[in-house]
Amino acid sequence: LIALNGYDGFLYSIGFLVAWLVALLLVAELLRNSGRFTMADVLAFRMSPRPVRTAAGVSTITVSIFYLLAQMVGAGALVALLFGFTSEFAKGATIALVGVLMIVYVVFGGMKGTTWVQIIKAVLLMSGAALVTLLVLTEFGFNLSSLLSDAANESGKGEAFLEPGLRYGTEEEGLSGKIDLISLGLALVLGTAGLPHILIRFYTVPTARDARKSVMWGIGLIGIFYLFTLVLGFGAAALVGSEEISRVNAAGNTAAPQLAERIGEIVFGEAGGTILLAVIAAVAFATILAVVAGLTLASSSSFAHDLYAHVFRKGKATERDEVRVARIAALVIGAVSIVLGIYAQRLNVAFLVALAFAVAASGNLPAILYSLFWKRFNTAGAVSAIYG
What we know:
Helix content: over 70%
Number of helices: 15
Strand content: under 5%
Low-confidence stretches: none
Order of helices and strands: HHHHHHHHHHHHHHH
């Protein structure tokens, strides 16, 4: 988004980062202290359990599928870039193959496998982003003004590339565009604290102090990473060019790997460009796998624990039954995401993620906060909040 829209693309980074403060101050510790297993457990504790669990389960699966959709599209674009696929059929087949691989991993890996892939992903992502950022800054003599002016020139949009209003709240859109921008900001800032794969992490740490500490580490690392995205985005615009990025992928989903290849060629020669592209593509792939694993785990466990065990079986399901149903649910949810991902190839990944955040911010978070802080909050309120 930064590579194609300049200043406006950075709004996503700001929203995602600030969101973690909401999670830290309002959600992390209280959810850990609740001693529950899923979001529905927290909501159903003092309400009529079946309607609340049904609503929470449906919402969790909806958010997860939107988010999984983004990962499938990203993975498809990445593999298509590496293999040089151009036909729609080849790209669709790529999304299907990648999706199957990831879901098989989740079904057999479980929470422990998911945790390890997320740890490895974090190390790879920070290292890879830092390396490319350093190479880009070196190319411009650590002069940010030079980087920004080159990016503006190569974007074809001139100074407007460095100013707000190129994509959001444009003059043509008028008032509706400004309202859209405020809405997007709210979704990004409030959505994180309502995402299923984030919430499930707060239930898996030993103490509330650990929950707090993990979010603090998260804020630090994420803050540094989003500073990298500024250099990566404007670097891609300056060195690759918006036209070339759009030619390879209209939504701009391959800007980072394209930048890695270009800066590698400049610094290390053609072979260096190929190697750096491979490294960054592997990092991106590991990141996608980690998110897919977390989302599929959260949504499938919600289906098994909330809908199957407590709504369909009315609390009579065994733990073994829940595990079996969770694995089947992971396969079904993954299959739905693959099919939708094939039809959503032309959409930008960050835009798809924002859809998930919008549902989490408007449906999940209010219900969680009211349940934790308002003693008069009741079943009708919880169900209305989520479905509405």
